[in-house]
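Two proteins follow. First one:
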Amino acid sequence: MKRVIDNKLEQELLDAMYKFHSLLKDGFMSQSKINMKVDIPKFTYSDLNHHKELRVALECLKNNYREYLKFLREKDYLPLLKVLYFYEDCEECIPVVLNLSLNEFLESDFYISRDELKK
């Protein structure tokens, strides 16, 4: 699921997070270190409207990156990865963090909707 926000700066931040998420997925699939460089737009806290959502998304990415590094170091490590569950019909809702196994993570997007959970 692709999250779309009216604020251009916040959308650029989310797009950078999506890109980092896809780089993490590529790293898990290749089981090797890859370049994780992502361009992030400059911003100030006052420029943002969805503070909590962006903070939760960033915490998920930080957790997933730590799990990725452990996965590379330890051969039999099974990571517990996080994605965001989001109610599509509620614009102002804060997403909820979902824990996923590696296989579930590789099949999912960064944001998961109600329809995707039913699969």
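Second one, unrelated to the first:
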Amino acid sequence: MTGHFNVLNYATRVAVRSRGWLSNLPPSMCDELLHEAVAIRLPAGHRLFESGDRAEGLWLCASGYVRLSRASGGRRRTLAYAAEGDLVGASGFFLGTQECDAHVHRAVTLLFLGRTELQRRLNQWPQLSQAMLTVLAHQVKCLGEEVCDARYLPLDTLMAKRLAELGSQHGQPMHPGGTANRIKLAMAQSELGELIGYSRQHVNASLKRLERRGLIAVTACGIVVHDPEGLRA
């Protein structure tokens, strides 16, 4: 594992405790875990791990984005984007080896917990094990829904659903009090295609149709979701 390691600073400690996995744990438990963690700052494009790598520990995303994907038959499919508060490598931790590839999509700060120390804490705190299992169960549920969506939904309906989700999870309001959100992930159309399982050409055509309906706008700064409820309809 490579990267630049730093002692976890106070600002990062406060921010991470307020969101995601750690926000559901008692403060004293969070404090001990964060005391044992180290902050790792990595640039966009950095390979965090690949499928089959030994799982050395667990990562928690403090800022930025990590892309989780898997290649099969010469094609790559994006499974998810991990953002602030999300765990990275949880399934690999329990299995012993990683089950997908993880690359930094946008410069990140990750908090790393080594295998030995985390295993000791899991044995010590049943509540921590339950919290991790809840995360894994949610991931399995989401992947199951995405498989069904990809199989049964028409392209434009699938695209609209994914954009509504991305706008909700990773959106930045365009105007105070407004409903328009710019998706901060800054994905190329080919990357969006890998997320929903279609070619860039199909993605481009679907985006244009949704744009003509006034639901989104494709701009130089990314995709803007104008009507999230319309996308979900």
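SUMMARY FIELD: The longest helix spans residues 126-152. The mean pLDDT is 91.
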